[in-house]
Amino acid sequence: MNLQQSEKAADWEREYNSSFHKLLRMFTLSILISFLGTLAGTQVPPALILPLIVVEFIMLISAMFIRRRKKSIGYLFTYAFCFISGITLYPTIAYYASTGGAGIVTSAFVVTTVVFAGLTLYAYLSKRDFTFLGGFLMIGLLTLVGFSLVGMFTGGFGGTLGLTLAFFGVVIFSGYILYDISQYKHGLTEEMIPLAVLNLYLDFINLFLSLLRLFGLSRD
């Protein structure tokens, strides 16, 4: 009986690891697809960027409704979003590259990768459950979005306030990495992996943008 239980436990552990590892592989692919989108963004007319941002927003809202119905969004949906996101990222990346040099973009990406990998490893190996952060992170995210909307109509925030908001963004999206990995490390169904990939992609990209802004403002 103990042998059977051990075999079942071993089978569960293999399944547990396989689903999470597949999630990480699909997430890595999402970053590569986004990079291809950024390369494509060099050929996209500036007039199309805003409509594509609207498309991104609609896709995110659609993903939320699909998740509420406990249905899968599919890999095509996820990777289409990542590609479009890469296109709309290009103007921001080009701006910081032109004002601070390509090194600032590279540094932000490298630091984002290191932070993401470190937090993922910590959340995966730690016995702590970070899902309790959900409510605090949502409040922080709504606050950050509120300030961002105000900044759109006031020309943005610079100086100490801008640095504070950028640092706040780094903290929020670092927290979301811990939160999401805590949810997924115990395994997830095949149908839910595309949505999980989308969530991790958003964590990564928003952390990257926050660090890019932080480095850019610090340089100024």
Automatic annotation (TrEMBL):
Which compartments is it annotated to reside in?
Membrane
InterPro entries reported in the protein's UniProt record: Bax_inhibitor_1-related
Keywords assigned by UniProt? Membrane, Transmembrane, Transmembrane helix
Cellular compartments per GO CC: plasma membrane
The way it spans or sits in the membrane comes to: Multi-pass membrane protein
Q: Where is it predominantly found? A: membrane
Q: Domain of life, per the record? A: Bacteria
Family listed: Belongs to the BI1 family.
Q: What is this protein called?
A: Bax inhibitor-1/YccA family protein
- This protein's species is Paenibacillus aurantius
